Amino acid sequence: MTQRKALLFVNGEIPKNFPNDLDNYNHIACTDGAYHNYLSRTTIVPEFIIGDLDSLNKQEKIPHSIKIIQTPDQNYTDFEKAILFLADKGVTQFIIYGASGNASDHFLGNLSVAMKYYQKYDFMFYDNFGRFFFANHQHQIKNVKNQTISLIPLSKVNHLTITGFQYPLENQTLTFGGLISLRNKAISDTVKISFKNGNLLVFIEDL
């Protein structure tokens, strides 16, 4: 069964480059902060604006084709509300821009939300330095030779083995505040990551 795919913009650092494959998505959405702060000044017209709407410029004319979804519940961030709204429409794969940069607490909050749902949904984040995502316990990454890759454990990661890297690891334990794999380099076109348990964030630099 084909995954339903959404392109989602949230209110972090303004992307320097925007995707041009818009026809490949079932839905395009943004939080109200992302629309107000940058998306409204692009040619991308989202299907949905989602959030508590506290960031929308009431003087700004919004195209009639955009559906405004007000979600005032303050127990959830606008990012989480957008995920839940789109998931309710059958979306299982999320391509996300604007989740990092600017206020560091927002970035960490977005990571916390992604960590809550990544085993249920497929998240890929893009920013002005590259892309990042949570790794599966058995993960292959292709077409990355000579790229810089960092592995950051957000919880204890046990029995980690990585191959295809300049600095391989075998059966290691990674912890935040302990051993991590920062700015390693892919020496093979395909690198492999395996671990037993934990939450492992992978950053790939695409400069």
Task: Give a topology summary.
Layout: E1 4-9, E2 27-31, H1 32-37, E3 48-51, E4 67-70, H2 78-87, E5 91-97, H3 104-117, E6 122-126, E7 130-134, E8 138-141, E9 148-153, E10 157-163, E11 169-174, E12 181-185, E13 191-194, E14 200-205
Overview of this structure, please?
The radius of gyration is 18 Å and the shape is elongated. Helix content is 14%, strand content 36%. The two termini are 34 Å apart. The protein is built from three helices and 14 strands. It has two domains: 4-128, Thiamin pyrophosphokinase, catalytic domain (Rossmann fold); 138-205, Jelly Rolls (Sandwich), CATH 2.60.120.320. The protein has 207 residues and is α/β, with parallel strands linked by helices. The strands form two sheets. A ten-stranded mixed sheet has the order 4-3-2-1-5-6-7-14-9-12. The longest helix has 14 residues, at 104-117.
In short:
The chain contains 3 helices and 14 strands. It has helices at 32-37, 78-87, 104-117; strands at residues 4-9, 27-31, 48-51, 67-70, 91-97, 122-126, 130-134, 138-141, 148-153, 157-163, 169-174, 181-185, 191-194, 200-205.
Q: State the order of secondary-structure elements, H for helix, E for strand.
A: EEHEEHEHEEEEEEEEE
Straight-line distance between termini: 34 Å
Tell me, briefly, the overall form. Answer: elongated
Low-confidence stretches: none
Content-based structural category: alpha/beta
Main attributes of the structure:
single chain; 207 residues; alpha/beta; Rossmann fold; ten-stranded mixed sheet; four-stranded antiparallel sheet
